[in-house]
Design brief:
306 residues; mainly beta; Porin; 12-stranded antiparallel barrel; 4-stranded antiparallel sheet; 2 helices; 17 strands; 61% strand; disordered N terminus
Amino acid sequence: MNFSTNKSVFLSSTYLLFSMLLQSQDIEPRRWGSLPLGAQAIGAGYVYSFGDVLFDPILETQDVEVDVHSIAATFIHPFRLGKKFARLDVLLPLSFARWEGLLSGEPASVERNGLADPRIRFSFHLLGPPALGPKELKEYLLENPKYTTIGVSLAVTLPIGQYSNDKLLNLSPNQFIFRPQAGIVHNWGLWSIEFTTSLLFFTDNNDFFNNSDKEQRPLFSSQVHLIKFFPSRAWVAIGASFGGGGQSVVNRQPINDIRGNLLGGFSFGYPLGQKQNLKLTYFRSETLKDIGANTNNLIFGWSVAF
């Protein structure tokens, strides 16, 4: 796709394009679950996102579609902090993205493939089951079928993914992203309801396209999930999320790219023996603004405890 014309106008919408797909809110149930001490886990996942992109009409783009295939490796390490439960999560993704549509009435496309930004997340439970080994935690949950967990976390996205300042579309925004979160989960029997709220703070990108400086204002999101467990340890969840904010400022000039997204979806988890698990998630993302992206997202994950 030829981005040599109208470069100043493209700053807004092209940045919005990839940030909507790579930075915006997620919809992840069971993020506050207690894991037994000593049962760290590794996993692998595949994500397929596809849908329509809505640009500012001044760009003369039409019928733009996006396809993103991503694979990721994960590592989870639960540990005790004082008498409380804590957890470290690491995510390492690779992405293969393609945008295709009409530019000034002519077919055009662009691809980006490579390392996306990894993320490290530390979480801590203020209230809930104590940090226990496998046998002790199982006994605690049997004795306490009703309990509430309150947790806080901080996730940091590291800007080491594919990035080039001579391109507007990259797999990394070249910014640190700090995401503090707070969540509450109430469990009763085989049911659970979970609420999480997040704020995303972005460092400046002083190496933005065309020797520009880019700031981004905070973005907020919240999500809620209803989860049903089964005696077989399988589970299903339905959830919804809303997010907004995140306006960009390029060379001290605010840009009309404020986010507004509504997500809805469901997840299904199934155990394979005592130590392995499969997870399937589908969610739909809809922009509430005139500029944005409407996407379908499929996630398949596998994990094993050791």
